[in-house]
Design goal:
It contains 9 helices and 8 strands. The protein is an alpha/beta fold and 218 residues long. It has a 5-stranded parallel β-sheet, sandwiched between helices. The chain has a 3-stranded antiparallel β-sheet with strand order 3-4-5, with helices on one face. Bound molecules: 2'-deoxycytidine-5'-monophosphate (DC).
Length: 218
């Protein structure tokens, strides 16, 4: 099942809870792009020097892997807690727009998903959230959802989550990321063909989870 949508639409928490309710695995592809960004920042702290060639050099050495509980590892180092830092959030759209990065992540996403599905004796599903899952990575996914909400509502949610900054700051940050994610040339954020669009403005997380579970199970 693919769940796509812009920043702050509530994809990650909804996807995690839907997976829990259905007994499916959950794959957070945003966390993968964040891990590449973190690794890149560690090697090249000066953002101004970043080029796609430098990222391409780093990619084969990354040893990126995901744990069953949603942890993300670089080698044997658990980097999960550092992935949502301001520094990573500010730069991840730039790194995730690079073709070499997307190619490596999409390959890994397909491998991991294949293993999760085959590794279970029972018929088993995977909930995957991101920006290009239903449109590019798994266009044949049985269920495709696109979660959206107004810019103001998404900014409000992020502000509540992070507990700092003004609403105006958050609106500007999110708008910038929306622009970068939807205007990049490789697999931009778009509504996948046949996706069910859910405007989550004014809905609780629980309501969104119930709606998705109902669509999938009926
Ligand atoms: O969902 P998130 O905020 O953790 O995503 C982090 C960034 O990664 C976001 O700016 C867009 C990018 N991303 C992407 O390009 N493709 C995906 N499938 C998932 C995330």
């Amino acid at each position: 099942m693919a769940i796509d949508g812009p920043a702050g639409a509530g994809k990650s928490s909804v996807a995690r809870r839907v997976a829990g309710k259905l007994g499916y695995s959950y794959l957070d592809t945003g966390a993968m792009y964040r891990a590449v960004t973190l690794a890149f920042q560690e090697v090249h702290p000066n953002v101004a020097t970043w080029t796609e060639d430098k990222v391409r050099e780093l990619l084969p050495r990354l040893e990126l892997s995901m744990g069953v509980g949603g942890q993300v590892y670089l080698g044997d180092r658990d980097v999960t807690s550092g992935l949502r830092s301001k520094e990573v959030t500010e730069s991840v759209s730039r790194v995730s727009a690079m073709g070499a990065v997307r190619e490596a992540m999409v390959k890994l996403q397909r491998e991991v998903t294949g293993k999760l599905i085959q590794g279970n004796a029972e018929p088993h599903g995977v909930v995957i959230d991101g920006r290009d899952i239903g449109s590019h990575v798994f266009p044949g996914a049985r269920h495709r959802f696109y979660l959206d909400a107004t810019l103001e509502e998404r900014a409000r949610r992020r502000q509540a989550q992070e507990g700092d900054g003004t609403l105006q700051d958050w609106m500007e940050r999110i708008e910038r990321r929306d622009r970068q994610d939807s205007q990049r040339t490789v697999a931009p954020l778009t509504i996948p063909e046949g996706a069910r669009v859910v405007d989550t403005t004014g809905m609780t997380e629980q309501e969104v989870v119930s709606l998705i579970v109902e669509v999938v199970t009926t």
